[in-house]
Amino acid sequence: MTNSNTSATGKLVYQLEEMILEGVWRPNHKLPSERRLAQRFGYSRTVIREALRQLQAKGLIITHQGIGSYVVEVFHSIEEEFIDPLVHLFDSHERTLFDLLDVREQLESHAAFLAAQRATQTDLYQLTQAYERLASPDTELTMDTYFNFHHMVILCSHNPILVQTLCQLKALLCKAIQTCLPLLIQDAEVQNQVRSQQQQMYEAIVQRDPVAARRATKTHIRFVSHHVHSVKKSNFY
């Protein structure tokens, strides 16, 4: 390969890595064909092929002959080593729930802040779909609709470290939602407040208002924490 091709390949590899890091191409996403990549980035098929070979050597994509190339998980799961023991603590120590809500408040509010700045049109379309399922007046809040909306907000942040950190907490987050949700939907007024808070989150992100998105997310998670704490305290007495 000539020096000019080597230089072009290095530039293309960097561009493709950026797309993976920013979440434009997410795990299990199928990359465009060599021909489409050549058209999109303006490089020869030789350069495209070498760039894909280097990405595969780095473990960022996997190529199946005759099928195509796919993005792999950049980070490996740590659930068995770290999360499982916390799930057991969650079952027996109530404070773990509120510790997790504290973490959610800090990380998810920043994710919402970034989402309002960085979300692509495709992101906003997917966020809207998740929000509409969540906000449907014909259905009550469920773990799936609640989790999917908040997870989509996180993905819209396009910060791979933040996304991965929260994804690694998925087992705990689902456990927390299972605990909190029944306490939120048993009172129609409380459920309406939750829906209103999530509407404010959604609208702030769509309207590209990062400060409002962060504020709405903090308000929502603090409300959940306060309400659950109040219910558990009253039940104790």
Automatic annotation (TrEMBL):
SUPFAM superfamilies recorded: GntR ligand-binding domain-like, Winged helix' DNA-binding domain
Pfam families: FCD (PF07729), GntR (PF00392)
Keyword Transmembrane helix listed: no
An example Gene Ontology molecular-function term: DNA binding
InterPro entries named among the record's database cross-references: GntR_C (IPR011711), TF_FadR/GntR_C (IPR008920), Tscrpt_reg_HTH_GntR (IPR000524), WH-like_DNA-bd_sf (IPR036388), WH_DNA-bd_sf (IPR036390)
Gene3D superfamilies the record matches: GntR ligand-binding domain-like, Winged helix-like DNA-binding domain superfamily/Winged helix DNA-binding domain
Keywords: DNA-binding, Transcription, Transcription regulation
The keyword Ribonucleoprotein belongs to this UniProt entry's keyword annotation: no
Positions of transmembrane segments: none
Every HTH gntR-type domain range: 6-74
Protein name, entry field: FadR family transcriptional regulator
Organism of derivation: Neptunomonas marina
